[in-house]
Amino acid sequence: MNAVLRLYVLAGDRLGGQPLERVIVDTAKSLHLPWAFSRPGIAGYGRHGLEVDLMLLEIRPDRMPITVQVFGAEEQLTSLLLQLQERQMPDRTVVLEPIEMSTVGHRTG
């Protein structure tokens, strides 16, 4: 079954000396998962109640929230999570959700 894995990390998170979001995307690519990307959060709050509003620059750069999304087979996503845990990924919120994937639109040659 297809699924999406969402990992909520911070810009200052590192794993093996590299930014955590880059490690996640690179590991997903090495596992041949079809899609992986990261994007910064612009506004919101987290489990500690820290409010974030990047439009007002009211957050330290290393605390900026980043969402990483990876799409693929649930078994591959579970394998990705296990690899990250074995490498001592920081304790962050993770969501694994079954989905139905499809494509829409016109493809150009």
UniProtKB/TrEMBL annotation:
It comes from the Bacteria. It holds the Pfam family DUF190. Gene3D superfamilies: 3.30.70.120. Belongs to the UPF0166 family. This is DUF190 domain-containing protein. It comes from Deinococcus detaillensis.
